[in-house]
Amino acid sequence: MQKGLSSLLMAPLYIVGFVLVGLLSAYLTFKVMSFSKTVEAPDLSGKSVIEANDLLTRKGLNMKIEGEDYDPLILSGRIIRQDIPPGSKVKEQRGIRVILSKGPKVWSVPDISGSTLSEAESILAKSGLRVNKVIRVHSDTMESGRIIAQRPTPDE
Question: Distance between CA atoms of 120 and 137, rounded to whole angstroms?
């Protein structure tokens, strides 16, 4: 009887001990993980990949290139956006995702000389462009309502 009673009392003690070991383990894991330093995310806009990577490495951060996009102001191969805003506090070893510039989008301008205004608007719309300004002038050589000249020209 005494042997059966002591094993019944030991089972809850083992369970309590197991739970305490689990809690202690979780607490220590949390403490170790929270030892990583918090750093400030730098401004990577306009920087080359090498410059940005050096800057991030010095702060204990990593760079992840997510893709490319056109930008009329930032040179090709330089960073135009980052997912973590500059000045934000982040943990060390965090990856900062960036988008690189493809440079300005280049449009080829079709020749619309001799077209009517509505024809020209249709041709330009197919190229993703639009008429910005129309100046009407008299011409002895061109029929009325036709385009005499354009700017930019197809060669520019």
Answer: 17
